[in-house]
Design goal:
Helix content is about 30%, strand content about 15%. It is built from 18 helices and 18 strands. It is globular. The two termini are about 15 Å apart. The N terminus is likely disordered. Bound molecules: alpha-D-glucopyranose and calcium ion. Alpha-D-glucopyranose binds next to loops.
């Protein structure tokens, strides 16, 4: 290290392109994901709620995030954690009322925090009035045309129309009893909508306007890659389409080109507001196709799931970052980085399990969950240390960053939830997945019983004893806590790191080193031995710097003299 030179092709003109695209709020924002049922409970029923979120606005402000994304808080039977929506334009009575929503929105806005709500357009719940009507109306009715009903095979339609499988395991078809079956990519309680139907399109326009009129700033679009489907016969056998990632838009269910027509239509709605509303896509697509969702005439932003799937290896990070930057330059889109969400084992645990050549850290963690977290052995300290180093990389990158609630506390996955406690439909349906509850356990705020300050009552998923040591109150008092690292990083980011482009600085293979145009360097040591740092001023480090040397598994932000 020491001397620097450019090793990428990011020339001045490219920097200019990045500056143009990234120079507005959503493209540089740090967004905090709230999973409402597990954030804060105001009334002691064990379920987090909207007044609970309002009561914690000072916390969000002290963290320094620019926006919150709320996972669904709509009326729901919770067949899929609220992603089974009964009514898209209301609040689940267990979580509050529309008035509570308005109060929460006002409190967040008063704290300078924007609000993103989750839109779930691929499916409704099976309790949605439309679906109830569709079942009652019978085959061939306009009510059934809002969903994907098909005749079954066999003499009386007793066999499903084809052998396609649901993402959650088992058949993607559920019988109605009258010879027809309905299609569901996820749980049977989540019937897929028919996006060729104009009533469906109009209803979602109404939903977007409903929340935008209330003052919501942006939308996270659930399963954005799934809305347009080719359900025409002959159906390809499941074996041919089980791999959902295709580089050419040819899969019958996922990432078909026409999906962007819907988003171009929505963009007209977004633009009709001042300031324009924004959106971010959850699109599980081939990496070369992500930029389409992030383009200015589609949704404008898309999560970079490659970052969430990356292992703790410098070559993985380098690759994911270069791909994200290439998207910015070639497709004039930005990247939304993330290390975790409500669907993935927590990053601290992923990075504390031994690396495996055949499987990604994600897969290793999912398999480890099946053993209730006993095998292989989790190195708690190492995982937490790497997670601290990782978030400093993300926050140093151009683009926006999403933080999943509890990651700022360095929480590990709760791996030993008992089978009876599990709520995720994935758990019941699949023997190869324990499900996603381990990252959805209600947050610890204090060391107080009965629920570590989550609320005056219990918690809908049992909290482990070790949560006590991770409570916000404990970390508030510790200057070196992960919570305080996040606070410092966020404060510095807004002063120093927002903006355009980056340059790689030549370094040893085990070191990731880049410079931001404002002069700040981000250096990460993925190796096992400390590495010498260039002379200069250290702004922040994820672990103590020892005599000018950056210890293993840590990141520093510095200015070089
Ligand atoms: C998205 C959500 C996930 C949900 C699924 C079905 O992937 O993030 O939690 O289960 O959509 O709505
Ligand atoms: Ca409650």
């Amino acid at each position: 290290m020491g001397h620097t030179r450019r090793v990428t092709s990011i020339i001045e003109q490219d920097q200019q392109v990045i500056a143009e695209i990234s120079n507005d709020f959503p493209h540089t924002a740090v967004v905090y994901q709230v999973y409402p049922r597990s954030f804060a409970d105001s009334n002691g029923d064990g379920v987090g709620d909207l007044p609970g979120i309002t009561s914690r606005v000072p916390y969000l402000r002290s963290l320094g995030v620019n926006a919150v994304w709320l996972s669904p808080f709509y009326p729901s039977a919770l067949a899929d954690g609220g992603y089974d929506v009964d009514d898209h334009r209301d609040v689940d009575p267990r979580l509050g009322t529309l008035q509570d929503f308005d109060a929460m929105l006002a409190a967040l806005h008063a704290a300078g925090i924007k609000v993103i709500v989750d839109i779930v357009p691929n499916h409704t719940s099976n309790r949605h009035p439309w679906f109830v009507q569709a079942l009652a109306a019978g085959p061939g009715s306009p009510e059934r045309d809002r969903y994907l009903f098909r005749d079954g095979r066999g003499v009386r339609g007793e066999e499903p129309p084809n052998d396609w499988e649901s993402i959650f395991g088992g058949s993607a078809w559920a019988p109605t009893g009258d010879g027809q079956w309905y299609f569901h990519c996820f749980a049977a309680e989540q019937p897929d909508l028919n996006w060729e139907n104009e009533e469906v399109r109009e209803d979602f326009r109404r939903t977007l306007r409903f929340w935008a009129d209330r003052g919501v700033d942006g939308f996270r679009i659930d399963v954005a890659h799934g809305l347009r489907k080719d359900m025409s016969e002959p159906y390809p056998p499941w074996g041919e389409i089980a791999d959902i990632m295709r580089p050419d838009g040819s899969h019958p269910l996922w990432d078909r080109d026409h999906v962007h027509e819907i988003y171009a239509d929505w963009r007209r709605i977004f633009k009709s507001y001042d300031p324009p509303r924004f959106a971010v896509a959850e699109a599980i697509v081939h990496p070369t196709r992500r930029a389409r969702y992030a383009s200015a005439d589609s949704l404008g932003q898309a999560f970079n799931f490659a970052m969430q799937d990356a292992d703790w290896r410098p070559e993985d990070y380098r690759q994911v970052i270069n791909d994200g930057l290439a998207d910015m330059i070639n497709n004039r889109s930005t990247t939304s980085w993330l290390l975790g969400c409500h669907d993935t084992p927590r990053v601290a645990s992923r990075y504390g399990l031994p690396l495996d050549d055949g499987r990604t850290a994600q897969q290793v963690a999912r398999d480890w969950l099946l053993t209730d977290g006993t095998t292989p052995r989790l190195d708690w300290t190492l995982g937490a240390r790497r997670a601290r180093a990782a978030i400093m990389i993300l926050l140093a990158l151009p683009g926006s960053t999403y933080i999943y609630q509890g990651d700022e506390l360095g929480l590990h996955e709760v791996a030993d939830l008992s089978q009876e406690a599990l709520e995720d439909p994935v758990a019941g349906r699949s023997s190869s997945e324990k499900g996603r509850d381990g990252c959805r356990v209600p947050l610890p705020w204090t060391q107080q019983e009965p629920s570590y300050g989550f609320g005056p009552g219990g918690a809908h998923l049992p909290q482990p004893d070790w949560f006590s040591g991770y409570a916000v109150s404990v970390q508030d008092a510790d200057p070196d806590s992960t919570l305080n690292l996040y606070r410092q990083a966020l404060a510095l980011r807004s002063q120093l790191l927002a903006g355009d482009g980056l340059n790689w600085v030549e370094s040893e293979l085990s070191v990731l080193h880049f410079a931001r145009p404002g002069g700040v360097r981000c250096i990460t040591n993925f190796g096992t031995e400390p590495v010498a740092l260039p002379a200069g001023e250290v702004l922040l480090s994820s672990a103590p710097i020892d005599h000018g040397r950056l210890p293993a598994d840590s990141t520093v932000w510095m200015r070089v003299s």
